[in-house]
Amino acid sequence: MRDLESKAIELLALCKDKGVRLATAESCTGGGIAAALTDIPGSSAAFERGFVTYSNEAKEELLSVPKTLIDVEGAVSEAVARAMAEGALAHSHADLAVSVTGVAGPDGGTEAKPVGLVHFAVAQRHGATGHRERRFDPLLGREGIRRESAIVALNFLIETARTLPGRQAE
């Protein structure tokens, strides 16, 4: 837990310094990233909102992920992760949004999409959307996969936020 907390503190400090607001779009982490961020006092200076879109319908309704994309690519895919992050930006006032969609287990995996497969995306309001894929060891268990996914997501946000210029004085 300490690593998750330290990453959340690091990200929030960086975003506060740069004037960057954050949003999360979470499926397999079930709000764990948003919880890690909001556990930190003063997080409201950088954390704008979080979407927990566990079901496909929630992805469609709250993030405008096209149903056809989910039907063709599957909810656990690069395309859906990208659409989730971009949808979180479109439905918020954030500058950066992270999405996570995966198979945390212990069941639900297939040969093509095994337990431990997680897709991440970070979308920038005025920039590109990046993607990462991780395959966690199923022996981590559901809790471990979700925790490690949250850490990867926070690291991805930190790396992206470091590349952003600070807000210009208006």
How would you characterize the overall build of this protein?
With 170 residues, the chain is an alpha/beta fold. It has a single domain (2-162), classed as Maf protein, CATH 3.90.950.20. 44% of the residues lie in helices and 19% in strands. The protein is built from six helices and five strands, in the order H-E-H-E-H-H-H-E-E-E-H. The chain has helices at 2-18, 32-38, 56-63, 67-73, 78-90, 141-162; strands spanning 22-26, 47-52, 96-102, 117-124, 129-135. The protein has a five-stranded mixed beta sheet with strand order 2-1-3-4-5, sandwiched between helices. Strand 4 (117-124) and strand 5 form a beta hairpin. Helix 1 (2-18) packs parallel to helix 6. The longest helix has 22 residues, at 141-162. It is globular, with a radius of gyration of 15 Å. The model has no long low-confidence stretch (mean pLDDT 96). InterPro entries: CinA-like_C, CinA_C. Residues 10-159 form the CinA C-terminal domain.
Tell me, what is the CATH class?
Answer: Alpha Beta
CATH superfamily: CinA-like
Number of spatially distinct domains: 1
Portion in beta strands: 15-25%
Helical content class = 40-55%
At CATH level 3, the topology is Maf protein
* CATH architecture descriptor: Alpha-Beta Complex
Total beta strand runs: 5
Q: Could you list the spans in which at least 5 consecutive residues all have pLDDT below 50?
A: none
Identify the overall geometry: globular
Largest sheet: 5 strands, mixed
Q: Please trace the helix and strand order, writing H or E for each element.
A: HEHEHHHEEEH
Q: Give me the Rg, rounded.
A: 15 Å
Gap between N and C termini: 39 Å
Q: Class by helix and strand content?
A: alpha/beta
